[in-house]
Structures
1.
Amino acid sequence: MFTTEQWQAGKKIIETLIQHGYEAVFVGGAVRDFVRHKIANDIDIATSALPSEVKFIFKRTVDLGLAHGTVLVIENHVPIEVTTFRTEGEYTDHRRPSDVKFVLSLEEDLKRRDFTMNALAMTANFHLIDLFDGQRDLHNGIIRTVGEPTDRFKEDALRMLRAVRFTAQLGFSIDSLTLDAIKLCSNDLAYVSVERLTAELEKMWLSKHLGKGMSYLGQSNLAKHLPGDFQFEDARWKYLGNPQNVLVCWSFLCLLQEIPNGSDLATIFKLSNELKQQINHLVNATQIRCERLFTIDDLYHFEENILVQAELLSRVLCSDSQQIPVELIVQRKQSLPIQSFRELVISGQDVMEWLNKPGGPWLKDMLSQIEHAVLHQKVANNATKLKEWIMNESNSEV
């Protein structure tokens, strides 16, 4: 694992800083993943060097957040974040410190971090620095704050949702004192921006232990303080499995509502217009599938991915619906004569010439007739056959 370009670039940066008389170590999630024998490419370095000193030492740098001590160092074309050891002032808004002080002590820097598993540091020679029993908690699968949990969560309310997200990602459990503190501070989630809440939820949607994360979301009382009136605590989450799919999870959350409305959900959580459209399609397709089997028109209207996911969601939400193998749905979809209007071999210009009529509202209706006829195999998607059908059998008086 230590042989990736990112790790090698980081190792070179640390060695260079040490050669110049500064202390420097790997920190954060990369060290946590290294201890767990997982591949990590998001490499971070902490150092006693000030940002100005880091910029002086390295030829290629980018200012990322000098006020917070972070400089992006480009080593052998690999970008690595290098941040000065720091402590943080008072958190006046439950999210960000009022000021940052640079320090020379690694211990002071690690004390400000959220969880013990994220407060590990490692030298370029693989030597772990573990001041808060992070290795023990990693071994036991426990998420525990560094220091007093209530203090950590009062400083930054987002840490509470991060703890829950880590249960979904890692399959870990939250330490009882840490969980009690989250319950106590749960209403402070209101201080966190919707964008940050959405980002954490979407990381959960992509996780391998979604059921565990959703369970903790309810146990911690955080579900009650998320925006809108959505069913984060519905028992059916445990039957969803681990789709590891943002679209599926947002759509499932929407479908748990008495009257599903993907547009409202997208507005509340500030989702992109593209994702909103996809949610609306999947919600619509799932509602149809809960009522009946897909028709030819349904298969044509919805994308293959939407059809497959709707079938799977219907099995969770509508237990009495007849299950259809997803392979059969895909086969039926792919066997349609056309997959979209663009696949018609003729154009509106052809139709106008054949009927000797100028363009107008009638043309749109005629093209819809043609599309429907080809889809339902009333006529082959062949120019000669289509011309014959238009001249003799279509409702050409539209």
2.
Amino acid sequence: MTSDPQARVALIIEDDADVRQLLVMTLGMSGFTTIEAENGRQGVALVRERHPDLVTLDLNLPDIDGVEVCRQIRPLTDAYVIMITARQDEIDRLIGLEIGADDFIVKPFSPREVGARVNAMFRRPRSTVRNVAQPLPGAEAAEESQSAAGVITAPPAAPEQTENLLIHGPLTIDPEGRIAMLDGIELPLTRIEFDLLATLVSGPRRVWQRETLLSRIWGEGWVNDQHLVEVHIRNLRKKLGEDTKAPRFIRTVRGVGYRMMPPSAA
């Protein structure tokens, strides 16, 4: 365990001592102070006591499994959570992401891969919302590139803004406070779900390509993992009370990505 008081804290919840030490070494090299838990109950207690910035969480723990641990710690922390498992079943990945994990790594893993994914997580901003009246550098070139590729997008239209709030029909988003409300009731969104919703609402007429969402929200290391977007969009839709056959808020543009429905439809 490293001891720099200024370092970000990583909690490693893993019963395999060899894997635990590998993660200690890997995360230590990335500048983290590391703390360790050998089982789920100990891990939940350390989340309460130490407030880590990152949690790596083994799916197969000796007392309570990683899915239940993630369920218990998610209301306690907004730390990034990476689930680690030897099982490659797709259902494990979906369940993990649905209950608030940010990423999913299968054993055996490369320390370089873990380091790259963690660094990409912490490079991405807490909020991806920008004033759409001030386009990102290179945005015009990107739009021209999309047009050349046959992807037609309507000009981005600024949502209604009141004191830095983004308002889209019954949705109100506070980017600074990271609060999203539907009909005046706060939505229990994870960090990624909030970033996805805020990004979509920031350009409500734009068709957001999956690759663009991955790059903006997850970072460049995830550009080939479009399934992450689909899973988190599905979870976001559930929390919005969406009927996928008649969407109220998020419309799928087949083969391209997603865009917001007009406010009148919401």
3.
Amino acid sequence: MLAAGLDIEDVVAIRHTLTPGGLTTQAEANGPKLLSYTREQGHGNKLGKNPPKIWLNFLATTGRRARFLTVFENHGEVAEERTPTLRFFDLRPSAAFESLRRRLVIEWPGDTVNWAKSGKAASSLDVVEIADPRVKPFPGYDRLLVDFDELQSILEDDSYSQWQTALSSVQGIYLIADTKSGQLYVGKADGNERFLGRWSAYARTGHGGNVALRELAALDLLHPQYFQFSILQVFSPSAPASQVDAAEAHYKRALLTRQFGYNRN
């Protein structure tokens, strides 16, 4: 921070998480909603009565890790917008640390409930990675084919930023192929979850909550390293749930995944 010409007492690091009532997707965390969401703060929260001038924004990834998003410069509270429960700040985008956006990964201390760290506490956050800035182009929904190892990279590696944005922007129907057994699973990524959110569950658990895959996991027979992910059909975020459900049912019938695959319904 000193190298960037910043006084550590003017800095606060904020750790955002994806939640149903706030930032719900990676695309929102990396888009304009981040500023509107961050400028709204409750009375008496961890930023204090007079928050610092420089707000470093991070997004929680796995464990205690968090990836740097961007910097906002605080120009003070907008008093006329204050409500009995909320304060609103005049935040403006800053070019500080521009070269580290989505590349810098830090490790938050064990008290992750404390989502804001100011001054010396902010400057002492451990840097665990500065990712390669080269970006891997997204191949398109109809050409996407991802194995389990690459899925981990898509979720964590900044070079997959185009993929993260694309997969968090639409809903639709996906296919998991078990390349060891040949069995298939048809699933849907709908609502706020989208493809990125749904597939992150497989990356964390291997089974993603699916009944048949959980049964295999209970028997120690689940081998997600053989899974291959692809997309069968894409729908806009505004498509009705009934349309997505009908497409999912169609692909289950067409690919016989209830009879010979991992689908149970």
